[in-house]
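DUF3019 domain-containing protein
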Amino acid sequence: MVKTWLISLTLLFGGPLAAEPLSFEILPRVCITAPDSPCRMNVSVSWQAPQLACLVDATRPEEYIHCADNLDDFPLELDLSQDAEFSLVDPGTHQVLAKQRIDLLIKEKPPLQERRLSWSLF
């Protein structure tokens, strides 16, 4: 009876059995650019983790961009020439906790329309 009551209190008040879920978000996730030019954009990064987590660029996993356990609206300026992937890692174990990808879309010029004359000799 006492055990049941203790477990109920632990669950109710967020004890060790109530684990926080991990959430990680980068917005916007798409960058649109013209051909032959890098895509410059400002993104907003936010996450909530039950432990300390660090943001890393997948191309440079040894360099931490920012570390925190809860982070709301961290501004990040990017220059992309290809798709980019960012990860949240545990700084102690270097284990990847979550990933987000930013897709690069290249806006192509529409093809020129062929003009037809309204009159013809043939």
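thats it. Residues 1-18 have pLDDT under 50 and may be disordered. The chain has one helix and six strands. bye
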